[in-house]
Give the backbone structure.
Amino acid sequence: MSSEVLTKEVTMPVGTAISRLVNLQYFVSTLLGSHPEKEREIATLVEALDAFEVTLSFSCDTESEVQEAVMEAETALDVLLCDAETQCCRIEERAASEAARPRKISSSRGD
């Protein structure tokens, strides 16, 4: 008996996925023992959310040594952590408004 590969595409709002992920993380961290089903769901949600990227442009008004630290940051998380420590950066309005703008999804059918 051969098994068939099932492919099913579903949609979930990003906010719902993030909310579920937070709830699962809380559940796993507060209860003792192993929860392989919950950990698998967490991994699946993280994989799905990693398909999205957000481009952030920071404007930092501060001393040169902090600006150097921001410029040397290698990842977005590094910049966010630097800002959390110094509270000197803000997301530029243009970048925030472009990120919030809905994008038309094109299809291979040409619609």
User: Anything to note?
Assistant: The CA atoms of residues 67 and 96 lie 21 Å apart.
